[in-house]
Each structure stands twice: as structure tokens, then as C-alpha cells.
């Protein structure tokens, strides 16, 4: 069993402030994700799933507590250092795909590698290889608006994993997809998890996805209500 910690939240609180109104979103969360896990956070809307996902990915900072990535505390990082950490160690998949419309599929996939300074030929080679693994290489020179929702989400997954990050954080990745497309995408992400030992953490309401992960972390009112191995 793999035990190497990839990302940890320790005593994490998050309070959103709007004028004089304070809205607590997380209340003392402790959770650790290890290398190679395939896990999901579940809970009703407003339970804190997306907030915790954003904190773990360094997209936001906690009000109190600490987030660690590869054992390194994120609070001590500058904005530039945090951006570099996200670029090299974290992959993101969003419900809305977030592909760049003026770039082709292969350019979208290679974009992270370009930001990392990978030479042109090498980043194209790696992008085409991962697109082939995910079954969308034939669309490499198409623009995203020519693809179906499921095909666009496969490209989004390709972009997230092409740089071999330590963890992929996915926010409702199957929410806009039909059942067959969702199951195919989940199987593809599971294969990427197993073959590349990439940690996946999902925030989801989708029972189709919850039925296929190894671990479910249940959130209620900003706290972890359950954390169990289900496979």
C-alpha cells in the first residue's frame, strides 16, 4: 500500500468575508492524500468540497491552518513560487473544460509544457502521446468547439496529466456528460491513475464516479463527516 503523502491539510479553516458578513466554509479540516490514490470528496452543495479542492491546489489560501504539498508548506511560498508549484506539481480538471478556444487540441494539451519551458518538438511529442492514450489524437489539429463535451473533457484530462503532476484535482469533471461518456472518462482517469501512479482527487455529486473511486471523503458544513476506503 502506498503511503507517501502528496498533499495534506492540517487544521484548515476558510472564512469568506464580504463587508461585515463572515461566511465560514471550512472548519478545522484534516486530510492527507497519498501517492497513487483515486479518491473523491462528496457532500451537498455548500459543504466545502470546492473550497477545499481550491485550497489543496494553491488557488486560494486558508484563513487558518496549513496546506502541504510534497511536505512543503504552501503558506511560506511567494505568489511566484506558488504559481510555479501549481504549474509543475498539480493538474486541474474543471467542469467547464476551460480549454483555450483559439488553440488547437494539441496546443491546448501542450500549453502547460510550454509554460514550463519544454522545447517545442518535445512538448508536441508528449502532447500527442497523451492524446493517443486518451483516444483523442485524431482531433489534435481541431479547435475545441469542433469537439463534443466528452471529447473536450478528455482533452482537459490530457492537459492535466501531460506534465506528470503529483496530483490531479478535478471539480465535477463528469457533471455535464451523459452516462456512457462519463463512465468512459472515469475508466480513462482510472487507467491514468494506475499506469502513471498519479493521485486523483475529485469533488463530485456524481454517484457514477463515487461508485468507482477507492476512497470517499464526506464533507458536511465545512467538516469531514466520514473518510472511508470503499474499494
Brief summary of the model shown:
The protein is an alpha/beta fold and 231 residues long. The chain contains seven helices and ten strands.
Give an overview of the whole structure.
This protein is of the alpha/beta class. It has a single domain, classed as Rossmann fold, CATH 3.40.50. Helices cover 34% and strands 30% of the residues. The chain has helices spanning 49-56, 79-89, 105-115, 120-133, 149-161, 179-196, 207-210; strands at 5-18, 21-34, 38-42, 64-69, 72-73, 90-94, 167-171, 199-203, 215-220, 223-229. A 6-stranded mixed sheet has the order 6-7-8-3-9-10, sandwiched between helices. A 4-stranded antiparallel sheet has the order 2-1-4-5, covered by helices on one side. Strand 4 and strand 5 (72-73) form a beta hairpin. Helix 3 packs across helix 4. The longest helix is centred in the last third of the chain and has 18 residues, at 179-196.
Radius of gyration: 17 Å
- Summed over residues and divided by their number, the pLDDT gives a mean of 93
Q: Name the helix and strand elements from N-terminus to C-terminus, one letter apiece.
A: EEEHEEHEHHHEHEHEE
Morphology call: globular
Amino acid at each position: 500500500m502506498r503511503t507517501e503523502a502528496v498533499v495534506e491539510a492540517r487544521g484548515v479553516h476558510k472564512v469568506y468575508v464580504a463587508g461585515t458578513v463572515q461566511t465560514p466554509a471550512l472548519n478545522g479540516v484534516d486530510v492527507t492524500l497519498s501517492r497513487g490514490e483515486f479518491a473523491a470528496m462528496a457532500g451537498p452543495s455548500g459543504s466545502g468540497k470546492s473550497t477545499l479542492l481550491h485550497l489543496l491546489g494553491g488557488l486560494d489560501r486558508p484563513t487558518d491552518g496549513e496546506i502541504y504539498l510534497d511536505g512543503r508548506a504552501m503558506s511560506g511560498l511567494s505568489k511566484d513560487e506558488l504559481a510555479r508549484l501549481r504549474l509543475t506539481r498539480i493538474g486541474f480538471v474543471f467542469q467547464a473544460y476551460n480549454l483555450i478556444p483559439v488553440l488547437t487540441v494539441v496546443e491546448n494539451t501542450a500549453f502547460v509544457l510550454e509554460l514550463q519551458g519544454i522545447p517545442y518538438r518535445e512538448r508536441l511529442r508528449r502532447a500527442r502521446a497523451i492524446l493517443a492514450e486518451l483516444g483523442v489524437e485524431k482531433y489534435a489539429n481541431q479547435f475545441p468547439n469542433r469537439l463534443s463535451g466528452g471529447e473536450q473533457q478528455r482533452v482537459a484530462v490530457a492537459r492535466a496529466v501531460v506534465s506528470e503532476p503529483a496530483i490531479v484535482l478535478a471539480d465535477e469533471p463528469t457533471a455535464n456528460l451523459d452516462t456512457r461518456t462519463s463512465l468512459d472518462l472515469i475508466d480513462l482517469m482510472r487507467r491514468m491513475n494506475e499506469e502513471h501512479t498519479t493521485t486523483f482527487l475529485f469533488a463530485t455529486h456524481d454517484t457514477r464516479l463515487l461508485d468507482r473511486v477507492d476512497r470517499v471523503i464526506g464533507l458536511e458544513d465545512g467538516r469531514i463527516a466520514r473518510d472511508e476506503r470503499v474499494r
